[in-house]
Amino acid sequence: MIEDPQRDAIIDALLPEVPFDGWTRKSLRQALISIGEHPDDAVLYFPDGAGEMIEAFSALADARMEAEAATAGLAAFRMPARIRTIIAIRLEQNRGNKEAIRRALSWLAIPINAPRAMRITAATIDTIWYAAGDKASDFSWYSKRAILAGVYSATLLYWLHNSSEDDDATLAFLDRRLANVAGIGGFRKKIEGRVKGLKDRLPGFVRRPQAG
Fold first, then answer.
1. Cβ contacts of 80 within 8 Å, gap of 6 or more
2. What contacts 73, CB < 8 A, 6 or more positions away?
3. 19-30: per-residue pLDDT in tens?
4. N or C: which end of the chain has fewer CB within 10 A?
5. What is the model's pTM?
6. Other CB atoms closer than 10 Å to residue 1's CB: what's the count?
7. What is the DSSP string of 25-75?
């Protein structure tokens, strides 16, 4: 995602409006007013409406999660602990945005929005693996992302339905999910052996360009 401080500021101003009026042009207009922008400029920033707003929010959340993960000293951890830490960062950063995320997921659950939903999920999962230091370049690149997508999606839904003021219960849930795939290597081999064309079944997953 290309950095755009103005667009990021609009997203931050938009999030408190979403619980009241959803991911709508009305919310966007109110957000613009709150930061001193003209409300009629709403169409200029997100001409594609709700989907574009939601995708921009998720991309911003991905970037912020990755930035904080880079300062978390993850190199000292094994991979499952890295994944747990990164997801914990994501939840903590967005604890105040639960209703906005809930409404985003409801919009993305509409069948016609499935391609965008897959693209958003794929981007988040790839960011988590990348922040964790994953260097896979073979078929496991896809299978590991498929596995984590299931873990992350289940954890996110649990988090949204949990009313605790902290994320302890959700992280305990995440720990159980990660324990279930502790033999992630063996589980991955089963997927690779049984599902032909997995790459084609994961259209949202696109490799990042390799550094250097």
1. 178, 182, 184
2. none
3. 999 999 999 999
4. C
5. 0.85
6. 14
7. HHHHHHHHHHTT--GGGHHHH-TTTHHHHHHHHHHHHHHHHHHHHTTS-GG
Residue ranges of domains in the chain: 5-201
Whole-angstrom distance, CA of residue 107 vs CA of residue 113: 7
Superfamily of domain 5-201: Tetracycline Repressor, domain 2 (1.10.357.10)
Which two three-digit tokens encode residue 47?
A: 């001409």
Those residues with Cβ within 8 angstroms of residue 203's Cβ, 6 or more apart along the chain or in another chain: 115, 118
In angstroms, the CA 63 to CA 139 distance is: 26
Max CA-CA distance within the chain?
Answer: 56
